[in-house]
Design brief:
Strand content: 15-25%
CATH class: Alpha Beta
CATH topology: Glutaconate Coenzyme A-transferase
Number of domains: 1
Structural class: alpha/beta
Radius of gyration: 18 Å
Shape: globular
CATH superfamily: Glutaconate Coenzyme A-transferase
Largest sheet: 8 strands, mixed
Oligomer: single chain
Number of helices: 8
Number of strands: 14
Mean pLDDT: 94
Length: 261
Amino acid sequence: MSDYTPNEMMTVAAARALRNEDVCFVGIGLPSAACNLARLSHAPDITLIYESGTIATKPDVLPLSIGDGELCETALVTVSVPEMFRYWLQGGRITRGFLGAAQLDKFANINSTVIGAYDKPSVRLPGGGGAPEIATSCGEIFVVMAQSKRSFVDKVDFVTSLGHGKGGDDRQKTHGVTTKGPTKVITDLCVMEPDPVSKELTVVGLHPGVTREAVVDATGWAVKFASSLTETPAPTNDELKVLRALHARTKAAHAPKQAAE
């Protein structure tokens, strides 16, 4: 088995969570890498949708943004953004949303707006874009992000995208949202899923070589573990080959053009 990085393990584990029949709303960055790895490996018929209105897109390289021409050029069709959100997303036609985050709390609420106080933040982030609507309108949500105490916090500084609110039935009772919300969080250390009752994120699986102590040290709350933990299967040579080729094509496509001599 080839050597692999924690980031590759995270991307492969996230890709495996997708099914061939899924209609998936894709976020830029790690979610995009995971979704396209799934498309190029075990789920060739997956329908990938990006916020700019591209439906069933099959990019050869990873997009830099939702406005990347690669998405439109390889899509089955491109619709207007209002149609994308009103008909496709709010119409309940998308089975899964795949998102990242700057901060995530124990109830899977997402912050991609500010670090610190909203009026005087220490860092102002890119913002939610369509993520708040994706988080509430997709059938369920997967989150993929690297794990550390800076990003996995007891309470997010700002709720950009609703997870399970304050836990329990808060998502539906308080906010009136009936979709499942975040059902899986995949990190570079482990896989988490919400407790069926409390909705608090619980570690259900560890990646190869990762200890419970490492997860505790990288989590900003008193993280809980399932009574029986699984071990994530290591990436196969085929998965790594496809993923690395995708990243190599992306790097070559987006590299700055050399000035002519």
